[in-house]
Hints:
alpha/beta; Alpha-Beta Plaits; globular
Amino acid sequence: HRLAVVADGDLSARLTASAPGGEGVARSRPRLVFLFPGQGVQFPGRDRALYRTAPVFRDTLDEASALLGPVHGRPLVDWGVDPDTDPGIQALTEVTQPLLVASGVALARQLRDWGVEPDAVAGHSVGEITAACVSGVLTLRDAVRFAAERGRLMGAFTEPGAMIAVRGGEEAVAAAVAGADGDLAVAAYNGPGLQVLSGSVSAVERAAHDLAAQGFPVRRLRVSRAFHSPLMRPIAEQLADAARALTLHEPSVPLMSTVTGEWQPVLGPEYLRDHALRPVLFGAAVERLAGEGYDTFVEVGHGATLASAARAAAAATGVRHGADRDDSPGGGPCAAASEGAVSGDVLVLPALPGGSHDREPGNSHDREPGTQRGDGRGALLDTIGRLWSRGVPLDRTALDAGHQR
């Protein structure tokens, strides 16, 4: 058995509650995938705690900020660490996209410094740019600059739009798209019964109303543009031009495309143009990864939106997934960690908690269960402990040193 315990109270009680019992089952080293999220999980001060306590994370965020220069009038790093930043400006796509890439690469580098090495990477929407950087295909300089230009083009030259996440109702979703005269599109297929619709504000609002009236849970995404929809067409060739400035390298970590569901995409002008227009095939990518024996997934970012979708997609392959993180008193990662250590199931974990979201009328699930605003350190240690319990190697010396600085 392996058991990792993170405790801020009675350690003996946590150890007793978490004792796995029974005989351990030998297993080979897990095959670990880093998943990088797209837009929608941003809140003021999201990177503040890790910036103060995780040196590799801090150095990478500073490096990205210096490479990019001012973003909307201030250093990129400020948009991630300042708790008093204007959330409306932070949510602008020209700010959010480079910040997501820089923060995601920084967190991945920190995890790797602690010995947590991915066997593959994948990203959702702009998260694929993050994944490409972590895989070695793009340098940090090219990744953050392309993300900034992508965000700038989308913010300046596309019409305002909206997006909603819908659970279930594939036929109803298809009917809504068919009846919208090209103003609505499926932007993402995240897993069985998990779709995202994107389009004009009026078309999305109409679809949200109709789908909710039919009993399907609908969640409005915190974006101001209709990503992965025909509303992105005005910038298609400008995106291709921006991609021509990129220098592509051989990957050191395999990259799974969420545009095609294939390995090792060539991130050339046509691909990165289509990447903004075509739907995200996240569910298909995770199904392929799970089907090929990748059994451990970590959402490298804030929140559990991708983790939740990945569980559903992995389950579609017939493999069970490990328990979710339990934030309740007396619960926590420990029991799930010991379970994950002895099972052959797929385990999907969020690295960090998400931020609390303002409730919107008719929004029945504003955030994934088990995510909460917090400093992130305890949650990250929970995740690392669960990975170690499962058999993922760690560099204990680097981990201890990083948390003593």
